[in-house]
Design a protein that fits this description.
Shape: globular
Order of helices and strands: EEEEEHEEEEEEEEEEEE
Distance between the termini: 30 Å
Strand order of the largest sheet: 4-3-16-13-8-11-10
Radius of gyration: 23 Å
Number of helices: 1
Structural class: mainly beta
Number of strands: 17
């Protein structure tokens, strides 16, 4: 997190700038997940680890191995790579590897719309025919190109799913996620990075996902004094590590 505190001491037409010491603990970046009409709404942080999204997916044996997998269960979460904290990813997978649970034959269709530009697929479980870009808004219909993400998964004794990276961490966007559990999956959960219990979702309704983005307009303050001493202190912070923070003062 970048943050700065600047104090400006104004003495008539003379100006002195000084850096003010400040003990400040910033808030963890928050994201909102909810369903229609605000149902199942939670505001929570992403799952965070010091590794890439691809490494955390830990794909082998035709399965993911994040630790969140469960039989007959579909799992979603946002993921932040602490070694590169502006890298935000979205994970969605179903079932569990045979060595870690008992997953029977399953079929799931999925669709993600509102995907921010610049997002890339970083993991397909298992191949492009199951997790791919699409122009279609019909669940399970994958065209190979387009602005949406489509899933058409068929699996047994393992997981299927995928992950994308490149979601903007400090911009406004909203993804809409829809699913159809055809066979073998009957639970849908969204997991969080704060250790709280995952949120159960209603698979008959879309899930909406977006970051909490706030902005402050400090406005323009008029001080008619032409003499004397005025001191102004203000704080600005950003969740984007290394982002340039700028103040502009005019008088």
């Amino acid at each position: 997190m970048s943050r700065a505190l600047l104090c400006v001491l104004s003495l008539g037409t003379a100006t002195a700038l000084q850096t003010c010491p400040l003990n400040f603990v910033g808030n963890v970046k928050q994201f909102v997940v909810e369903q229609e009409n605000g149902k199942n709404r939670r505001t929570v942080p992403a799952v965070e680890r010091a590794m890439t999204a691809d490494d955390f997916y830990d794909y082998y044996s035709y399965s993911s191995h994040t630790g969140f997998e469960a039989a007959e269960t579909s799992v979603m979460f946002l993921y932040r790579d602490l070694t590169n904290p502006t890298h935000l990813s979205f994970f969605w997978f179903h079932g569990v590897d045979e060595g870690f649970g008992s997953q029977g034959s399953a079929r799931v269709d999925g669709l993600v719309t509102g995907v921010p530009s610049g997002t890339t697929i970083v993991q397909r479980d298992d191949h492009p025919g199951e997790w791919e870009w699409t122009t279609s808004t019909t669940l399970g219909e994958l065209t190979g190109t387009g602005p949406h993400l489509g899933g058409r998964w068929t699996f047994n004794k393992n997981t299927d799913g995928g992950a994308v990276a490149g979601l903007p961490i400090n911009e406004n966007w909203e993804m809409k996620i829809q699913t159809n559990f055809i066979e073998g999956i009957d639970k849908w959960f969204f997991y969080f990075g704060d250790g709280s219990a995952p949120q159960a979702m209603n698979a008959a309704e879309p899930v909406y996902l977006h970051p909490v983005v706030t902005s402050v307009d400090l406005g323009v303050a008029a001080y008619p004094q032409t003499a004397g001493e005025e001191t102004f202190c203000t704080l600005v912070q950003s969740d984007v590590e290394g982002e340039m923070l700028t103040y502009t003062f005019m008088w």
